[in-house]
Specification:
By secondary structure, this protein is of the alpha+beta class. The protein folds into two domains: about 70 residues; about 400 residues, no CATH class. Helices cover about 40% and strands about 15% of the residues. The protein is built from 14 helices and 13 strands. Strand 1 and strand 2 form a beta hairpin. The N terminus and C terminus are likely disordered.
């Protein structure tokens, strides 16, 4: 979408002014000659400054109004949209700008290539098989952002980007030929690895130093390096204890347990832990044990925050529409961190909805490896500026819900809210998506530590039940 610089429209350029004056006064050329070379030089500099201003303003207008047009055509302007608990109304341009800041600030993890080889293999890319791990990384990144920076944080450069549409990789098996994404306007094969993002250099904004450092630290923890606690290399290594290896597909339940193990072993955020529910039941006693005591009034830190992961199955072979209401209600909650799941053979990270369409981040783009050990490594490829949606009925029934509680008080409020949603009379389902029970799991099953031991049995059973066309997702 082209636009005209307001400066050029209202005031005109120096060159245009001189042409106008020259038309009115034939002697102006002689006057200009008398000014000498110094005056000509000043005029030349003014021309250059005006051209630069015009280009910058045009670029800014392309970004601002291009996003506005895209939002109004891609999403309904009459229906409210929820993004991880935040409400947006696209009838107002201010809400479109708020949504852009919020959406682009979410951390986007995608396929990568040319990273250090995974241990024991020659694989230097996860293209074609690592999409569920990437979705899990995005969910974990959201939890880290909320925990370390709060839900209100946004990346300052989120407003200053060009919109570049990309075609996703579509591969149905790890052995398929890998097709890397290219911008839709690109015609030349040699440009296939070009970055999908272009941040306007004149609009770079520096956030508070400690926020910028935390933002970069989170990306370092998620980077594709063997030493990264939440990176692909470590995730694959932890998956080995569950019968998974590099090149295999991972289900949302398996990835939930991998995230729990990764955070348990990480020293970077000792005050945060992950709880994975068993048999679609959240046991309050187990979660409260992880949380510890609430912090005292003097502000000193006691206890831990927790990310609650609930693997579920919303139907048999396909998504059961009676669960639509419940899924949308979860995404409206401020404590919700999103849903990892997707559509058959295609993992996605769901972060919002509008009407009966889910909003998601798609990991199916292959980007070059970024060396995050550098002080000023580029951030653009870790943020997505192209919102996408799909009908909720296309959702694969296997998925994992995620919620965050900072302390016992928050967890109590979370349980109260969840129980209202799960027992809502407006829901169509006869059975709740999951349940919340007092006490601890071993008090009901008599099997202490079953959260750590049942997963392998569950995984083996799921493989026997799995259909050929749903092999990317695990039956619970």
């Amino acid at each position: 979408m082209n636009s005209v610089s307001p400066t050029a429209v209202q005031y005109g350029s120096p060159e245009a002014s001189r042409r106008t004056l020259g038309h009115k006064n034939p002697s102006s050329r002689n006057d200009q000659t008398k000014m000498g070379s110094e005056g000509a030089s000043r005029d030349g500099e003014a021309d250059e400054v005006d051209k630069i201003k015009s280009k910058l303003l045009t670029a800014w207008n392309n970004v601002k109004y291009g996003w506005t047009v895209k939002m109004k055509t891609h999403f309904s302007s009459t229906m409210p949209l929820y993004l991880l608990g935040e409400l947006y109304n696209f009838r107002f341009d201010d809400d479109i700008e708020r949504f852009q800041k919020d959406f682009v600030s979410r951390i986007w993890m995608t396929y990568r290539k040319d990273f250090p080889a995974l241990e024991g293999t020659l694989l230097t890319t996860d293209c074609g098989w690592g999409c569920m791990i990437r979705s899990g990384q995005m969910l974990l990144a959201q939890g880290l952002l909320v925990h370390l920076l709060s839900r209100d944080w946004f990346w300052p450069n989120a407003l200053y980007t060009h919109l570049v549409d990309m075609e996703p990789i579509r591969s149905s098996s790890p052995s398929n030929t890998l097709n890397y994404p290219v911008p839709s306007s690109t015609k030349y094969p040699q440009e296939r690895s070009r970055s999908v993002w272009h941040t306007l250099p004149h609009q770079r904004i520096v956030q508070y130093p400690h926020q910028e450092q935390i933002h970069r630290d989170i990306l370092r923890w998620l980077s594709d390096h063997p030493a990264s606690p939440f990176g692909l290399h470590h995730m694959v290594s932890l998956g080995g204890s569950m019968g998974k290896k590099a090149g295999d597909w991972y289900g949302p339940s398996i990835v939930a347990h991998i995230m729990r193990k990764a955070l348990d072993r990480a020293s970077q955020v000792p005050e945060l832990s992950v709880y994975v529910s068993q048999d679609c039941t959240v046991y309050r006693g187990d979660v409260e044990q992880l949380l510890g005591e609430d912090p005292p009034s003097d502000g000193s830190v006691v206890g831990r925050a927790v990310i609650v992961l609930v693997p579920v199955r919303l139907g048999g072979e396909a998504f059961n529409p009676v669960y639509k209401h419940c899924v949308k209600e979860f995404l409206r909650m401020q404590s919700c961190l999103g849903i990892i799941g997707g559509k058959p053979k295609h993992s996605l990270y769901f972060i919002g909805y509008q009407d009966n369409n889910l909003l998601y981040l798609d990991p199916h783009y292959c980007q070059p490896y970024i060396d995050t050990s550098k002080d000023e490594f580029p951030l653009e490829s870790f943020h997505c500026n192209s919102p996408r949606k799909m009908p909720i009925t296309r959702m694969d029934p296997s998925c994992t819900f995620a919620f965050y509680a900072r302390n016992k008080t928050d967890f109590g409020l979370l349980c109260d809210h969840l129980m209202k949603v799960l027992s809502s009379p407006s829901g169509e389902e006869k059975y709740p998506v999951f349940s919340i029970s007092d006490g601890k799991a071993q008090e009901y099953s008599g099997a202490e530590g079953s959260q750590n031991t049942n997963i392998q049995t569950q995984h083996k059973t799921s493989r026997r039940l799995m259909r050929p066309n749903s092999d990317e997702f695990e039956f619970l």
